[in-house]
Amino acid sequence: MSMIDRAGTxxxxxxxxxxLGYGAMQLAGPGVFGPPKDRDTAxxxxxxxxxxxxxxxxxxxxxxxxxxxxxxxxxxxPYPDDLVIVxxxxxxxxxxxxxxxxxxxxxxxxAVHDNLRNLALEVLDVVNLRVIYGVHGPVEGPxxxxxxxxxxxxxxxxxxxxxxxxxxxxxxxxxxxxCEIVCVQNHYNLIQRDDDALIDDxxxxxxxxxxxxPLGGFTPLQSSELSAIAAEIGxxxxxxxxxxxxxxxxxxxxxxxxxxxxxxxxxxAAADLVLPDEVLTRLNAIGRKGG
Length: 291
Known about the structure:
Layout: E1 9-12, E2 15-18, E3 22-23, H1 39-51, E4 56-58, H2 67-76, E5 84-89, E6 91-93, E7 99-101, H3 105-119, E8 124-130, H4 144-155, E9 159-165, H5 169-176, E10 181-187, H6 196-204, E11 208-212, H7 220-232, H8 237-248, H9 261-268, H10 277-288
Parallel strand pairs: 3-4, 4-5, 5-8, 8-9, 9-10, 10-11
Antiparallel strand pairs: 1-2, 6-7
Helix pairs in contact: 1-2, 1-9, 3-4, 7-8, 7-10
């Protein structure tokens, strides 16, 4: 039995993945640009994640760029049969490490081929369209042309499933009229809860929700209160934040990232963390406070 089995599983299209996965973004260099400081450790982190039962890895060819995908290939190829690699398209990196839109149909097609090449795959399990109208959160804007391009790649057998990242409810509804959407990846955590209603709606339709930045946006007061609760129950703040997300909804899939073997073990141990009702009440109260 995997050490993360307690967290359960949830389907992503035709795949059933464990709810505690791994995000590869932090394996690249500073600013998600260039090679890792310690390549051997980066490879070891990926291998330990899979050995520990992780079968959902989140990546993108614009991390590095190309760095995380090439590390994943070196560490894990040929891939375990149950491993689901989820990538995203819609951006590119400048030579100055800038993040730039790459949102035209032609750029999306090229990005899919870049991911296929660098991951050494013939078909991508899941491709998330990263909606680029807002840098710091979802912003309305049309995505039909972009989804149509990905849907065509799906029909050609290069992509199995399609998801969205940084998307509004209206964009998700628009996308679902074009093709099946299997997951949505947005900023959400104990404090940042704008997507509460969206998560519940997606759950009713069997669509996975993948939150990023599990500790992003906390004020100093909120962070200190979370740390105090974590200390009381013998856990780290990150473990408590992850456990709260697992408790929040059954369709939430986690992809905490790290370049440290010790932090990876700590994050995966969140699957075994039980939050009593009294602790959940206090955690929910933190989310309602300002700071």
